[in-house]
Amino acid sequence: MHRVLISDPLAEEGLRILEAAEGIEVVNTPGLKGDELKSVLAECDGVIIRSGTTITADLLQRPSKLRVIVRAGAGVDNIEVPAATREGIVVMNTPGGNTLSTAEHTIALLLALSRHVPAADLSLREGRWDRKKYTGSQLAGKTLGVIGLGRVGLAVAKRAIGLEMNILGYDPFLSAERAAELGIESVSDPEDIYPRADIVTVHVPLGEQTKGMVGKSQMAKLRKGAAVINCARGGIVDEDALLEALESGHLSGAALDVYSSEPCTDSPLFKLPNVVVTPHLGASTQEAQLNVAIEAANLIVNYLQKGNIRFAVNMASLEPSELEEARRHLDICRRLGLFQAQLAKGAISKATITYQGEAAKKKTSLLTTAFAMGLLENSLEEEVNLINARVLAEERGITIVEKISSEHSDFATLVRVEVESDQGTTVLAATTRGRQFVRLVRIGSYRLDSIMDGTMVVYVHQDKPGLIGLVGTVLGKHGVNIAGMTVGREVEGGEATGILAVDGVPCPEALQEIRADDRISAVHVVKLPACGEMPPSFG
Ligand SMILES: NC(=O)C1=CN([C@@H]2O[C@H](COP(=O)(O)OP(=O)(O)OC[C@H]3O[C@@H](n4cnc5c(N)ncnc54)[C@H](O)[C@@H]3O)[C@@H](O)[C@H]2O)C=CC1
Ligand SMILES: O=C(O)CCC(=O)C(=O)O
């Protein structure tokens, strides 16, 4: 049974999906905080949050069962994503479900601001017929500066074009050509927006680079009488600088849906009549809440039931069909990692993974993570998975380099790994056989062909008659049955490598006896999962 905590209010339709899902137990207790939240989280496999819950590193500390965090919404700034990644917890969001509602709310604030709707409303309710005081400004013909032209920013721009506004935009990922097609004049430096805009609206995620991006110097560049809207995240517009610019009369107004600390019920900005405020309502429509709740519920159910990952913010997402396609290669890479970990001597400092043929066309960053997972999974106390393996490798000073080779090889698909340690370099290469088997086709300079399955005895010996028999005899004497054998050599009479697939794990005495023969220079036992056996994160 997988337990899922709902820690913020979620639309009924999402709850119903969770309750109907097989093997899912729902813990619907919005509003938990501090230690109580931590102890409930530790007993849950997954959690669905909105903006009311902040997931800190402390809440994620092991021991905890938590494997997945789903944000029913777009912004993940209320989750310490690097800490989740470190603990192997996948973080997913539901982008798109609340885009239109948030864009509409931005337009609502834009209109309310330009026509003083909240102040005029209050004044009339208080018995004043003040028509002159609330003379506004027309939006048609004005310039709206849009910073961040992703889903919400573009939807805002499209709607503002409908209001006959001119749009000046900046987003590092939107080309000038595409912007022009959409009727947006794009600039290559956001600083160019401020002197030309009548109103600036931000639609970027909150992060190191965007925190305070509309600050004192940007406000100074704005024309006198300009206005600012923040419907993205508190802190992107510097609240102190905004207050100063409004109080000095340099800015004519501001509209805010989000605050640097939430909930926020007391701010000097709330005392200014030319500031329109709402309590983080951008996504608060029935439609948006329905969309994100259904999407969040489906994401968590599919992950917990089938291992499917979509909209992950801390790993490459794979559609179920892509995952099915990638599984064989994930399996090759993890097995190479497991093999390397048992073969390489000394402290590993670098691993270079080269993809050739079919492998080169896959999501290689994910395959590389599968290799790192295999390399570390038997050495560390903590769970190593497709989310945290690269971070854990980095933490241990292992540099992982990924290469794509267009060279022709004898195999339709080939993954080669070269692991460097303080005691030398180990090279392995593998390919597939059929849908289920992984074939090791190279160890160091030896070419061979061995199925990477179960327990294997790998030894390096002089290429002389009788040595394979000797190893077999010793293993037989110690009750170890040999199920298969492969030998690879460079030149006749030189050194060769043998791999025996064995039915049991040889005891230390048997290995000692084999090592005692000075014609055998190395013996290793490598234990791999049975063919086809894969971890849950491979789907
Ligand atoms: N008020 C509310 O209730 C809601 C607020 N939001 C906020 O709006 C933000 C945007 O949401 P979406 O449009 O769905 O995200 P998105 O990911 O589709 O768009 C964000 C855009 O910002 C751009 N960007 C990033 N750094 C930038 C920078 N330094 N300068 C200019 N552009 C930059 C990105 O290239 C991207 O195109 C979210 O991160 C969230 O914080 C989203 C939904 C509801
Ligand atoms: O959860 C909410 O209602 C807020 C939505 C939001 O801010 C987001 O999706 O980023």
UniProtKB/TrEMBL annotation:
It holds the Pfam family 2-Hacid_dh. GO terms for molecular function: NAD binding; phosphoglycerate dehydrogenase activity. Its EC number is 1.1.1.95. Pathway: Amino-acid biosynthesis; L-serine biosynthesis; L-serine from 3-phospho-D-glycerate: step 1/3. InterPro entries: ACT-like_dom_sf, ACT_dom, ASB_dom_sf, D-isomer_2_OHA_DH_cat_dom, D-isomer_DH_CS, D-isomer_DH_CS1, D-isomer_DH_NAD-bd, NAD(P)-bd_dom_sf. Signal peptide: none annotated. Keywords: Amino-acid biosynthesis, NAD, Oxidoreductase, Serine biosynthesis. PROSITE patterns: ACT (PS51671), D_2_HYDROXYACID_DH_1 (PS00065), D_2_HYDROXYACID_DH_2 (PS00670). Belongs to the D-isomer specific 2-hydroxyacid dehydrogenase family. This is D-3-phosphoglycerate dehydrogenase. The lineage of its organism: Bacteria, Pseudomonadati, Planctomycetota, Planctomycetia, Kolteriales.
